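From the methods appendix. Each design record in this collection lists the tokenized structure first, followed by the designed amino acid sequence. Records were kept in a plain field format so they could be parsed without special tools. The example shown here is representative of the layout used throughout.

RECORD:
FOLD TOKENS (317 positions):
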């Protein structure tokens, strides 16, 4: 980014933060639709996320979800400025207090620095999810409900590729749908990679842009999907057992989730990630976006097919 643009951003941030100057402004890695910057105002560190110019949409309800999650005791970056409908920076934005820690799953699972964290992480993740799921969804107007079986059935049909394992998994999921205990706010991508971890364990849950209303077990099932264990030996985020996760969740809610329901959502999550892999590879193969990364993700389709065969072989058909 050009120096002049940096200066313009510093000036805009100074106005937003009501301070004379912004220092230590640095660009961090970001996704396709957002820019992420870290900066200092006064003696405190903050993180800015803003929508890339030309991106359709914005932050929509994410800042409000962050705010209510923080109030409920979920470890999240504290929202400082909700700029979803503000214009000082030219595009929608939000500013949160910076949180220190590591997000790279390989380091969290293997480095000695995080050995104590690994012993606490499963319990902390269960408690954090339970606190989120007890928040009244009415506190965040605009969240939408999402039937993921219907969504991914449609996506697979639209891709037009034969994938018998995913088709069988979708039929199994439809036949064995559990009765939903409740509808609540779910994070939607609750897994290692979206967790900030320090030496004591969970420092913050990040990346709330696809939060929606759904079944609470969606988050726990996604956390247990094999792909998100990153080679760890245990089912819950690679570091803990199902029982540890469910016991931690019950310590907040007073009700222990049914392991069979958790397993249903783990199967759905495995199917979902497999179909996402097909979609991302197709984005490259059709020429929409040429990317070695997207092409390589296509090889992971068969990993999820294998995992689904294994999971489905252990339950009713």
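DESIGN:
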């Amino acid at each position: 980014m050009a120096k002049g643009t940096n200066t313009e951003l510093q000036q805009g941030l100074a106005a937003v933060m009501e301070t004379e100057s912004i220092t230590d402004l640095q660009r961090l890695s970001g996704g396709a639709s957002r820019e992420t910057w870290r900066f200092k105002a006064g003696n405190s560190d903050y993180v800015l996320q803003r929508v890339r110019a030309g991106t359709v949409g914005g932050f929509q309800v994410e800042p409000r979800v962050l705010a209510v999650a923080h109030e409920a005791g979920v470890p999240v970056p504290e929202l400082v400025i909700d700029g979803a409908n503000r214009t000082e920076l030219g595009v929608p934005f939000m500013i949160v207090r910076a949180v220190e820690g590591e997000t790279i799953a390989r380091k969290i699972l293997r480095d000695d620095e995080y050995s104590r964290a690994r012993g606490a992480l499963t319990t902390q993740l269960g408690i954090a999810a339970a606190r989120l799921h007890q928040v009244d969804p009415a506190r965040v107007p605009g969240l939408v409900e999402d039937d993921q079986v219907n969504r991914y059935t449609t996506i697979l049909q639209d891709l037009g590729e034969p994938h018998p394992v995913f088709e069988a998994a979708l039929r199994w999921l439809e036949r064995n749908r559990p009765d939903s205990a409740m509808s609540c706010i779910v994070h939607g991508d609750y897994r290692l990679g979206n967790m900030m971890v320090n030496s004591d364990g969970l420092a913050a849950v990040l990346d709330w842009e696809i939060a929606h209303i759904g079944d609470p077990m969606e988050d726990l099932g996604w956390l247990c999907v094999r792909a998100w264990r990153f080679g760890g030996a245990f089912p819950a985020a690679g570091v803990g057992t199902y029982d540890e996760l469910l016991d931690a969740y019950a310590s907040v809610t007073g009700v222990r989730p049914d392991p069979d329901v958790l397993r249903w959502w783990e199967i759905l999550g495995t199917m979902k990630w497999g179909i996402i892999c097909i979609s991302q590879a197709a984005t490259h193969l059709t020429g929409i976006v040429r990317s070695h990364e997207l092409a390589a993700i296509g090889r992971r389709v068969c990993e999820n097919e294998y995992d689904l065969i294994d999971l489905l072989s252990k339950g009713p058909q």
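APPENDIX NOTE: Strands lie at 23-28, 34-41, 44-51, 79-83, 93-97, 184-186, 195-198, 201-205, 212-214.
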